[in-house]
Amino acid sequence: MGSRSAMNATDKKLLDNLQSDLRQLSNEAKRKFPAVKEAAESGIVKLRNAATKHEQLVLALRSDSPEILEPFFAGCDSKHPKIVQISLNAIQRMINIKAVNNLAASNIVNCLWGLMEAGLEEVKVLQTITQLLVTTDSVQDHVLAKALVISFRLHFTKNPTTNNTASATIRQCVNCVFERARDQLKERTDLSKAYQCVDELKTGTHAAPPSLARASADAYLLFQDLTFMVNAEQPTWLLGLQEMTRSFGLELIEDILAEFYQVFITHPEFTFLLKERVCPLVIKLFSPNTKFRAQQAAPGAVQDKPFFGICMRLIRIVSVLIARFYSCLVTECEIFLSLITKFLDPEKADWQRALALEVMYKMCSQPDLLRCFCIHYDMKAHSSKILQEIINSFAEMLDKVEPSAVPDGYCLSVGYVSIIEMITSITKLIHKYQKKSPTTEEEATANQELCIQLVHSSWGGLISVMGLLLETSCDEQITDTLLTCITSYAVLCGQLNMCTPRDAFISAMCKGSLPPHYTLTVLTTIYQSSYISPRSVFEADSVVDMRPSLGPYLGSGGSLDGGSDVAPRTDQIVAVGTPLPTRSLPQGAHQGPVMLTAKNLQCMRALLILSQSNGAILSTAWHMVLTTLQHLVWILGLKPAAGGGLKAPPSGTAGQGVGPSTAQGGSNVGTQSSGGQGEACLTTAITNDLPVLSAMLSRLFENSQKLSEVALHHLIDALCKLSQESMELAFSNR
After folding, report:
1. Which residues contact 597 (CB under 8 A, 6 or more apart)?
2. Burial 118-139 (b: 16+ CB within 10 A, else e)
3. Residue range 695-710: mean pLDDT, rounded
């Protein structure tokens, strides 16, 4: 009794939902579509009457489904988007409860065809087709073909969402068709009639063999039409389908052969399709690949260049044919194996050899298959020695074909030039909009928003890559290019008042100016928030030499001095000094001496140039810039001079015990300074640069007279902060 009550409750809920759909349809259509409104109201009466005809509501609905669905078909015919949505939802509800008979299924497909041609609710149309084929066996023969044609035609629309949904729908529907055929053919015991029908098929008829039942015949006709369409022939069953891409058709054929191979092996009608449709098609499409030579063709000769996508799919089909259907395609497989073996010839393109090797690898890992090769080919007197040819082709390829030489750091070099081009392109684009004179305020706002979005979308990834390359680069020219790009991007961000990305790029320059592993709190917070540590990619002591494949970015010979083939290395140690104790430096950090390299000074020069030329955009970044310069001045031992400038330490004897007696790269230590700030051990490589750096530091403050009041305020504020930090440190050390 409880079960009966539960069933009644379920039926009642179902009936209420269908009545609600009809009422909703009536309300939506009452103004513009009175005929649809009348059909919906009439449908409510028909629905109630149908519910009384059978004890089980679903069976009652199924028997009267054409009449019950009629209002919803009328709603779809109205082409009104809202009404179409309501109607399709109700149709899907009937399909899901399996309350659709053969006539209703045919009417549904006709309705969906109209929506497809009108371009309405394309995704929902595809969903309805999937549900219809998966939940019921009512869709067969020409109705099934029409449903599949709808899916195929929607697959070739320009809308990517519809295209992808249709692709998935087609694959699911094709699998459903062959699953029905497989289940039906399992019950088959007598194949004598099937063999008789195969003889008739050889006469050239395209009709389904009479030996096949309906579901199997549908699968036969579908597969046959797929081969026709791939071969650029007209379909005989999928009527209304005018086009199909060759690559998609080959993918479907491969999926069917791989998943339902037992159907093709066991049943003669499907084996006939393999021999007479698939194999000739594959051999024909392979023709451009077998004739193509990677070397220069003779003058006047015309070559059909192979298409990688087609060749790849053909190779995969051949792999399936050999692995699954070898027993019934002995002669055809001999041809396929010979074709694949020829792909390993030295004159073939690299990608052709790679594809062939992948297939051969799979075959060589199947002992039973190799055994069959030997039995059917190598052991036959007048047959090709396939197994021998495969092994010989491997040996010849390994002996004669040299792999393409890929230089060390090639991928890094390609990535480097790509990033440089990316920054250059974005900079040019933003400068173009900045120079452009907008005619309206709306245009100016739109241009500004575009520039900001360009930086917003790119700066995070760029600072990660540029910081990584700057830290690992050991070539002066590459480092200079990186610093130029970082500087230009920092200026760009400053001009757009984007403080966070501006500070991140300036922080990268500051960090590059300081000794390795130098800890400075004012930089760490900004830098780590936007920078991926290079040690997650490289080892801590790795050195990346990107010179071999950078081409024009290095100039002639890859060298800066013009006389040497080797560009200057920037990992050369040029100074050894003591760290400056400040509140920005954690207590106890850098107890021993620290070392400056040529790259640190290169970054320092770039930082000074940025500050001199673009002080107006630094704003709050002045603090980190001045803090960095303060530490560098201390490490280098620069002293205050008369007139407010800085001067290099006087020349003296070579330093002993402070740092290495010989700097990396062979430069002798030639100067040692001493004073209250400790000792700085300098190499001869830096002695000529110190006066230049001192002059640049002096000009930095001289140029402050050119700053606006706001920019000057930021500079003074940064100086006040440095002074305050120094006084606090002195007070705490008393």
Report:
1. 515, 516, 570, 571, 572, 573, 574
2. eebbbebbbbbbbbbbebbebb
3. 87
**CA 57 – CA 692 distance, rounded (Å):** 95
Q: CA-CA distances (angstroms) from residue 629 to 177, 514, 603, 616, 699? A: 75, 9, 11, 18, 13
Distance CA 112, CA 118 (A): 10
What's the first-to-final CA gap in the chain, in angstroms?
95
CB 610 within 8 A of CB 703: no
Q: Is the pLDDT of residue 208 over 60?
A: yes
Mean pLDDT lowest among 601-605, 609-613, 681-685: 681-685
CA atoms within 13 A on the CB side of 368: 5
Which residues pair with residue 148 across a beta bridge?
none
Identity (one letter) of the amino acid at 455?
Answer: V
3-state secondary structure of 134: helix
DSSP-derived secondary structure letter, 620: G
Contact status, residue 479 vs residue 546, Cβ threshold 8 Å: no
Contact between 227 and 253 under an 8 Å Cβ cutoff? The reply is: yes
In this predicted structure, the answer to whether residue 486 has a pLDDT above a threshold of 60 is: yes
The rounded Cα 411 to chain-centroid distance in angstroms is 17
Q: Which residue in this structure is represented by tokens 């269908």?
A: 18
Query: Which H helix or E strand runs over 142?
Result: helix 141-155
Taking CA 147 as the corner, what is the angle to CA 141 and CA 151, rounded to the nearest 5 degrees? Answer: 140
Instruction: Calculate mean pLDDT across residues 24-52.
Output: 87
- Is this model's pTM higher than 0.70 or not? no
Distance separating alpha carbons of residues 40 and 71, to the nearest angstrom: 5
Cβ-based neighbours of 157, under 8 Å, separated by 6 or more: 122, 163, 166
Residue 223 neighbours by CB under 8 Å, 6+ apart: 253, 256, 270, 273, 277
Q: How many other C-beta atoms are found inside a 10 Å radius of the C-beta of residue 592?
A: 7
| DSSP H/E element including 522 | helix 521-530
Residues 6+ apart with CB under 8 A from 633: 646, 697
CA 307 from centroid of its chain's CA atoms: 22
* Least-confidence region, from 58-67, 396-405, 457-466, 516-525: 396-405
With contact defined as beta carbons under 8 Å apart, do 93 and 18 qualify? Answer: yes
Residue whose C-alpha is closest to residue 111's, from 87, 77, 81, 63 = 77
Q: Which residues of 172-211 are buried (b: 16+ CB within 10 A; e: fewer)?
A: bbbbbbbbbbbebbeeeeeeeebeebbeebeeeeeebbeb
CB count in 10 Å sphere of residue 298:
8
Q: Nearest CA to 141 among 112, 105, 189?
A: 105
- Residue 131: both structure tokens together: 């549900």
Q: What are phi and psi of 156, to 5 degrees?
A: -100, 20
Q: Which long-range contacts (CB under 8 A, 24 or more apart) does 207-212 make?
A: 207/236, 209/269, 211/269, 212/269
What is the longest distance spanned by two Cα atoms in the chain?
115
Strand blocks (E) in 565-693 = 573-577, 594-597, 639-640, 646-647, 669-673, 680-683
Give ∠ CA 511-514-516 in degrees, rounded to 5.
90
- Using only C-alpha atoms, the chain has a radius of gyration, in whole angstroms, of 39
Specify whether the CB–CB gap between 192 and 163 falls below 8 A. Answer: no
Amino acid at 346: P
